[in-house]
Amino acid sequence: MRTDGLSFCMLVKNEERDLAGCLDSVRDLASELIVVDTGSTDASLEIAAGYGAKVIRFDFTRVDFAAARNCAIAQARGRWILVLDADETLDPAGVPKIEALVGQNEDAGYYLERHNHASDYATSTTDFVVRLFPNLPNYRYRGRVHETIHIGRLIQTDICIEHKFACSRETRRRKNHWYIEILKEEIAANPNDDTRLDFLAAEYHQLEMFDEATAVVEQIVRARPRDARAHLFLGTYHLVYQHDAVRARADFRRALELRPGYPEAASFLQRIEEQERLY
What we know:
Helix content is 46%, strand content 23%. The protein is built from ten helices and ten strands. The mean pLDDT is 95.
């Protein structure tokens, strides 16, 4: 039974291998399927059309994932938006939970629990992503890469997404470098948007470029001097990757000043003190 008022929106580019599985997981839930294509040369468009999806071609000459996602949302007629990527599928147990949330019609966005499975790793990782939210004009994505949507109230759920990606480690590294260049362009265009720095630090970290990541986290602390979490991260980089216990201690102490009782900062301080007693 399709949920009246729920629009499913997604981006695709050459996703013929995974697209059908993704659409199968939501076809009986959403009242409409909207697929924005950013340049497929395979059978993705035909597959989407076969599911009755509204297919929109989007000029992706200038990479901008937020603009592409917002193009999909702008076409949606439902009161609610559900977003998945082509290599993701919705756990069937989540269908009635989404139906219930849409029925409540609260002005809130919902985190879904995503299980990430890489083909070249034996273990999976879990993160939480905002994928269900009201279709309101002020809820739009921002960021050319690592696009985010800002909603006033966010609620975590146990609705699961299975994310299976088959790209190799080298392919992921190339993507990291590609994203770094785009993030640098975004930061140069809008130096006041310090949120892009968080993603830049993460890209450097994934590439194990820890000196570069540390320098970016130092920028974050300068931009957000009262952000206890930023000071915690900086202390971690100074301690683990820079082996600078003096600076790390100062970072963790500042984190505790800003957030009294901060357990992670207190734990790192204890670790420093124990090491000093030993050596």
